[in-house]
Amino acid sequence: MIRGIDPHEMSHSSHLHSTPARAIGTVGIVAKASLAGVGAVLGEVADWLAARGIRAVFERDTAALAGRRDLASPTKDELARTVDLVLVLGGDGTLIGMANRIVTADADIPILAVNFGSLGFLTEITLPELYSSLESTLSGTAGVEDRQMLQSRVVRASRLLADRLVLNDVVITKGALSSLIDLSVSVSDQFVTQVSADGLIVASPTGSTAYNLSAGGPIVHPAVAALLITPIAPHTLTHRPIVIPARSEVRIRPKLDEAHEEAFVSFDGQFGFQLRHDDLVTIQQAARPLKLVRAEARNYFAVLREKLKWGER
């Protein structure tokens, strides 16, 4: 049963439930490379887990941060396929990088993300809450949300160029020398519009508080099964953000008629490339969601209040 939400109105966008009942015997640990002082924390976490009969597995770069180059540590891709829980120490970007790998590996495992700095929209668990969150996750009492992922493909002349899973958004933007770009937008088999703008964002509810928010798009609660389409600085001000059902497929074709016009696509801001005229970019809900461990100390609205400084003067 979803707490406070009618299950009949839910997709797998964000389904709150308890941690899987299966025993967690191996915890994969991934840390942001530039974090000061993370080496000591990594050693402490490994010892804490070992005292409870649980094996810590450091991702390759994280093992170097911990000073454990002697370990045969896996890559991030290998880690996602071989552990029962992933612990991320870092910010939202570190979490997003692992989210893609976990869902791509079709791994039905939760991710526990701890922010070393200020509270993140996704990494909402703070460092002082690390061990209590680990304890509740291992005991199966922690709240876990299913966060909707997006699957995006790029096709050029019937050839598949990219097939990516993203947590936040797929963004198409103009090149530095382009004044505007024209993008033909359809939803499933229905033509929507041709928008002339600096670009276009297609976001998940989780991604609504990322680039979408900066571009004037709405905040959508992660429990809502939806996709968001937000123009970036549209030439016609009546082109506004739109929220559509999660089961839809968004289809975008750049119309690059002039030699100086350039368009680029990026996936969660971590991978991208240049598009050509009439390439087809599709975005739809992915088959599997990401399982994200929630903070016990605050709810979604508390995170919004803190990050967006609501109520402050």
Task: Give a quick precis of the structure.
This protein starts with 15 loop residues before the first strand and ends in a 5-residue tail after the last helix. With 313 residues, it is an alpha+beta fold. Helix 1 links the parallel strand 2 and strand 3.
CATH fold assignment of the largest domain? Rossmann fold
Low-confidence stretches: 1-13
> Helical percent range?
10-25%
CATH domain class of the largest domain: Alpha Beta
Shape: globular
The chain-level structural class is alpha+beta
The CATH superfamily of the largest domain is known as Probable inorganic polyphosphate/atp-NAD kinase, domain 1
Radius of gyration: 20 Å
Taken in chain order, the helices and strands follow as EEHEHHEHEEHEEEEEEEHEEEEEEEH
Report the major sheet.
Answer: 8 strands, mixed
How far the N terminus sits from the C terminus, by CA atoms, comes to 39 Å
Descriptive notes:
It is built from 7 helices and 20 strands. It is of the alpha+beta class and 313 residues long. It has 2 domains: 7-148 and 289-308, Rossmann fold (3-Layer(aba) Sandwich), CATH 3.40.50.10330; 150-285, Tumour Suppressor Smad4, CATH 2.60.200. It is globular, with a radius of gyration of 20 Å. 44% of the residues are buried.
Tell me the layout of helices and strands.
Layout lengths: L15 E3 L7 E6 L6 H13 L4 E4 L1 H6 L10 H7 L2 E5 L2 H13 L5 E6 L9 E2 L3 H10 L3 E5 L2 E7 L2 E8 L2 E6 L6 E7 L2 E8 L1 E5 L7 H4 L11 E7 L9 E4 L3 E7 L7 E5 L3 E5 L4 E6 L4 E4 L6 H9 L5
Parallel strand pairs: 2-3, 2-4, 4-5, 5-6, 5-20
Antiparallel strand pairs: 1-7, 7-20, 8-9, 8-19, 10-13, 10-17, 11-12, 11-16, 13-14, 14-15, 16-19, 17-18
